[in-house]
Structures are given as structure tokens and as C-alpha cells.
Amino acid sequence: MTFAPVAVENGKLLIGGEWISTNKTFDTINPANEKKLASVSFAGAEDVDRAVNAARSALSTGPWAKMAPRERGRMLYKLADLIERDKERLAILESMDNGKPVGETMNFDIPQVIETFRYYAGWADKIYGDVNPISGDFFSYTLKEPAGVVAQIIPWNFPLLMAAWKLAPALAAGCTAILKPAEQTPLTAIELGKLVMEAGFPGGVVNILTGDGTTGAALSSHKGIDKIAFTGSTEVGRKVMIAAAQNLKRVSMELGGKAPNIVFADANVDQAVRGALLGIFFNQGEVCCAGSRLFLHKAVEAEFTEKFKKFAEGIRVGDPLDKKTQMGAQVSLEQYERVTGFLEAGKKGGAKVIAGGSGLREKLGGYFVQPTMFAETNQDMQIVKEEIFGPVVAAQSFEDLEDLVAKANDTNYGLSAGIWTSDISKAHTVARRIKAGTVWINCFNAFDTAVPFGGFKDSGFGRELGRQAMDLYTGEKAVWIGGLGK
What we know:
The chain has helices at 45-60, 63-66, 69-85, 87-98, 102-121, 159-173, 187-198, 213-221, 234-244, 269-281, 301-313, 333-348, 361-364, 382-385, 401-408, 424-433, 468-472, and strands spanning 13-15, 18-20, 25-30, 35-41, 139-146, 149-153, 176-180, 206-208, 227-231, 250-254, 260-263, 293-297, 352-355, 372-375, 392-398, 413-414, 416-420, 438-441, 456-457, 460-461, 474-481. By secondary structure, the protein is α/β, with parallel strands linked by helices.
């Protein structure tokens, strides 16, 4: 079954509850056929100022400032219901703009978006302060207050889901937000803005600014922003940090990764192969926590490689709107050229191509890449050291546990890791020693809104999802009352 494309309108900015067109626009492209989908308004510095002022006004005056937490929760539940109502259209639109298979958007992305808004709707009236145990003739308590006006800069690999990860806890906490989607994938963020207004959120509570890195830079340095939440590359994350330092904004970041995925000799090889395939080829490999470094114990290396190769070569790559498609297109020409450049670097560097190894643009007419496995790699190779962000895995063998741990941690990143073993003691031991924010044991890419997600080192700081995300969007105020002994 192939879904029909949905109609796409030209995109506008959402500022203070009003949809605004700008003279300057940019095009968003369907990566599966390289055709233009729509023209989208480009937010400049004046638009950023207007959005910040609208968000500030909504935060300090009007209905949002006075709204009871439980009512904020009801609005979030209403928004989730509206997303569920429009889930098919949103899933198709996400596939058109991003290139990912519609089977993934319908069965993973959009259900997770709905679940995220419902999860944080439940948190809205459960944000408690504390009574502080102090001495003397005093009484002291703490208040949890909204962090303020937050700028949320989201990536192109999971456009609507990453918007939900950021907007839902921020709104539950009572913040106002300016959402800046990636220029490659702005369309579902615009649709989300329409649903936000339909759900009854007051104007200025959620603002949508579309544009490129200059728009994000203007937000990052703006004095009217209290907090920045950024998901994207480590390189851009550093620039956001520098800009935010100008007025010491609060910052949280979820950045890149180069995850080790470790298969021990006592692993269930069939299970590990399935998990490794999901770990690297899900979402065309455009996943920050992708298991892009395979460590295979020599005792199972041959069996694992043979089975992985068979499955990889059987993956159906093609039209994202065909429900049978298993892997879609890279998001843009720039990303396609980046990934195929790594393929050539791997070959020139001496790695052995087990499966794939080529781009498919000429054959399929879009930014498609073969699911690729390299073997006989080492720590010095570019494909092992650098984040590729595509369907490319680099495998190497091991025997010694100490050597394995050293190599697994020999990376600037620390976002995720996978461990495959039937020895639970070994699994716990290695999980403690791997420097990563998430460690999956006998599974990979498992997510739940109740479980925090984030990294260490160049993978960023702060935790999204779970109750921990509420800490990103609240501040703590201590209140003292004296004179109680008189």
C-alpha cells in the first residue's frame, strides 16, 4: 500500500497567536524525489524580537499567567487528542518532509508524540515545592516556578517528536516557548502550531519561528530568553553555548553520539543481529544514539557478520510513502553527500565492505543510501571516530574485556551503548563501566516517556523525558518567614 501525498501549504510564522508571512522565504524539499514541497517564511531578527515579546507578555500577563496547573494539563490532553485525530496526515507529512518511511512515522513517531503530550499533561499539577528542615525561629519552604521564556531548537531527524519532547514539559511547567524547527523539516512544526491554537492555548504561549542557523543564533543570544533547549550536532551546540553565555541563560543540550554496540560470545546471536540492525538502520541511521560501532567477540564474529549481511542486503529501500518500505531517504542533499563521503573514506581507509557501500541517488531519484556494514575497522579510522548520522556501521572484533571497555570509551561522545550477553553479572559490570547516558542490555533503541534520556561529554547535558525533564523547565525559589518565636 502506498499512501497519497497530502496537500502542503506555504509556511508562515506563528507569533503571539497570529500567522505571519515574511518577504524572505526558503524552500523545503522532499528528499525522496528532490521536488519542492513548499515555500516557508524566514524569521529574521525583528521576528525573533516580536516572538520573544509575545512570549514574555503571555508569561507575565493574561490567562496563561493566571491559569491553574490542572487547566494547563487539560490543554495538553486536548492537544494530544487533536494530534491523534490528525495522526495519518501528520505521519504522511513527516515522511514527505523528512524522507523516513511512513510505517515508522505512523507506528513510532506520531504515537510517541501523543504519548509525550499526555504524559506531561499529567505532570502539570504535580510540581511540588518542599518544606525545609531548618533551625531557629524560622519557617522556610521552596517554590517551583516556571523557568520563563524558553527557546527550543529542534533537529530534522525526528521533527515532530523532538518538538513534543521539548514543548510538553515546558508547557506543563507553565513556561512560554519559541520553537525553532530545522530548516530542512519545518512542516510538521507548523502543523503543530495550528493544533496548539485549536486546543485553546492563549496567543504567545507557543510561537513557531522557521528559518536557518541565523534564526537559531538570534534566539540563542537574545536577552529576553531565559533558557535554551537544543538538540542537534555537537558543532552547532558549541555555538549555541557561546551565544547563550552572553547573558548566562540556562542551557540543556542533547547532541551527537557514536554508540558502541557490544556482542559477547555468550550472546543470543540472532537476537543481537536483529537489535544491531534496528540500532543502525532505524530512521536511515539518522539517530544520535545509533549503534554505529559494533564490537564483536571473535567467537561469534563470523556467524554474526554472515547473518547481519543477509538481513542488511534484504532491507527494502525506496518510496517513504510505501508501507512496505523499510528504509527511506537521507534528509537532504547535504546529508546524502556527507554519508556517501564517509562511505568513500571507509573504503580508502582500508575497511572491508560487507554489505552496501554506495549511494542510490542515480538509481532511485532521491537521497537514498544502501544499508552499509564495514568490517576490519580500527580506532584510527574516520568511520569509527566521527559521527556519520547515516545507515553505516563499523565493526571490529575483540577478545579481552579490558581492551573492549577502553575502546568502547575511546570516543568524545557518551550518549548510548548496547550490550548483548546471557551473563547478567557481566552485563551489569560492563554497563557501569561504559560512559554513556543510556545503556541497553539485550535490546536497542528502547524508549519510554517515563525514562530519562541524555548524554555525557560531547553528547551534551541535561535529561529529557521522565520526571527529570521537568527540572529543565522549572526554577526553585526559597522563601523564609522569620519572627515566629515572638
